Amino acid sequence: MITRRGLLEGAAKIALAAGSAAPAAISAKAKELPDFLSPLLPSGTREEAVLDALPGKKPLIKLTYRPPNYETPVFYFRSAITPNDAFFVRYHLAGIEAVDAKTWTLNIGGEGASGRAQLGLADLKKLPAFEVTAVCQCAGNRRGLLHPHVAGVQWSYGAMGCARWKGARLKDVLELAGLRKEAVEIVFEGADGPVLAQTPDFAKSIPVSKALDETTLIAYEMNGEPLPHWNGFPARIVVPGWTATYWVKHVSQITAVTKPFDGYWMKNAYRIPAGRFPVADQFLSQESASNAPITEIVVNSLITSPFDGTRVHRHRKTAIDGIAWDGGSGIRAVEISIDGGKSWKEAKLGDDLGRFAFRPFSFDFVPRKHGRLVVAARATNRSGQTQTQEAIENPAGYNNNVIHTITLDAV
Amino acid sequence: MRWTGIVAAAALIPAAVCADEMPVRLKEAPGISIVEGRCGACHSLDYIVMNSRFLDGGNWEAEVTKMIKAYGAPIETEDAKAIVDYLKKNYGE
């Protein structure tokens, strides 16, 4: 039987395997498990979460077993590309069938198309292939860190990842079925589904303009490998810049519609209050007077090293490393504060893997005094948007881009 | 009986692609068997513990109502009331 202690020892091992000293917070002591999870999380989340490996995956932070919701531990974000076997897993409904690549088919049609098309995986791969490096981030990433807490999957920092996605352009696939000018939205459905027939199946739509964007793909490769089952094998929709809710996994049906799609997962879920967030990419056909569907990823950053609570030495160089990302404007600057936000200095940006990717940053400083240092990172994108001090309230707890803060102990 | 239908549907998910689900132990209290049976038919019970302890009685009632109205969970009024009572007492704010 797997015990918490066993899982914890696993955590210490992966930390070592990742080439980093195992931080105190994930040492092999069961009582220290809560320290591995943010103290901002609900107490019940901290009691229930464990490190657990899904088949083919590294041990990730298990929030729920069925449907599986597993987040990526922060140390994997020390690399700008998230490994496939450490990439987060998020499902809404538990009817998840294995998909056979040989028999899988993708059907394209709908009243917004003049014809229909059916593609197998080999057909999809025959179309011109394109690659994009992009962040896939759950709309609810960091929900669990909000105060007051709101109901939902209590994610901390790891409901996201950045990968090199390769596939056919969605626009090329739509062309095979003859997209009509009357089409307003493109609807995606996956091979997975609900447990009960009466539960609304997971289906999402995007505006035609976004569907025709050259970066919107039907991806069959992730970091040069087939997609892991848990990340949408054999093919998933990739909508760079937009939150992961639109990146439908195991995609099997693409429908061009001439009226706004009224499925539950569009009309009732993934909505944000109208006008409360700075949004560049609106989804007008889905907006109501009071709310709108969530669209692009808000600018954000994460300190990946050192971990919160780490001891550092006076008069010795200390490096603050991390990543920053946004919905596709690209990162202009990351500033670091070592005095709890009173003053800020610019960090050095690392390799630019494209405007949709994680952008590494690094900042060196030498602690001069004994005691507690409150270190924060704040990213600004090329549109001038930056992170917030306090979360912008919204019922489902989306778009949390509150400045990430850690505490270091200088000795 | 409808109830057996739900269990059968859950059992149809191929074991090979299911997570190796560890049993989630909820607090022993009146109503637990209804919660385990009804809620556990569609999702693991860690959903409940994860969402504690910050929801009040009204919030838990809203969650159960959402499961019935939005997700189509076939739960009769009497059972729904027992589930809300259990969640409020054992996993409430």
Task: Please give the structural blueprint.
The complex is a heterodimer of chains A (411) and B (93).
Chain A: H1 4-17, H2 33-36, H3 43-48, E1 50-52, E2 60-64, E3 69-71, E4 89-90, E5 105-109, E6 117-120, H4 121-126, E7 129-137, E8 160-169, H5 170-177, E9 185-190, E10 203-207, H6 208-211, E11 217-222, E12 225-226, E13 236-238, E14 251-257, H7 264-267, E15 271-273, E16 291-293, E17 300-305, E18 311-312, E19 318-325, E20 331-337, E21 345-346, E22 348-349, E23 359-365, E24 371-381, E25 404-410
Chain B: H1 2-11, H2 32-40, H3 46-50, H4 57-69, H5 77-91
What descriptive keywords fit this protein?
heterodimer; A: about 400 residues; mainly beta; five-stranded mixed β-sheet; five-stranded antiparallel β-sheet; about 10% helix; disordered N terminus; B: about 90 residues; mainly alpha
Protein chains sharing the most extensive interface: A-B, 41 and 35 residues
Number of strands of chain B: 0
Q: What sort of overall outline of chain B do the alpha carbons produce when their principal axes are compared? A: globular
Biggest β-sheet of chain B, characterized? none
Name the overall outline of chain A.
globular
Residue-averaged pLDDT of chain A, rounded? 92
Strand content of chain A: 25-35%
What fraction, in percent, of the residue positions of chain B are helical?
Answer: 55-70%
Order of helices and strands of chain B: HHHHH
Total beta strands of chain A: 25
| Overall radius of gyration of chain A | 21 Å
Q: In angstroms, what separates the terminal alpha carbons of chain A?
A: 41 Å
Distance between the ends of chain B: 35 Å
- What's the helix count of chain B? 5
Radius of gyration of chain B: 13 Å
| Poorly predicted residue ranges of chain A | 1-34
Oligomer: heterodimer
Unreliable stretches of chain B, pLDDT < 50, 5 or more residues? 1-17
Question: How would you characterize the largest beta sheet of chain A?
Answer: 5 strands, mixed
Instruction: State the helicity of chain A in percent bands.
Output: 10-25%
Strand order of the largest sheet of chain A: 6-5-14-9-10
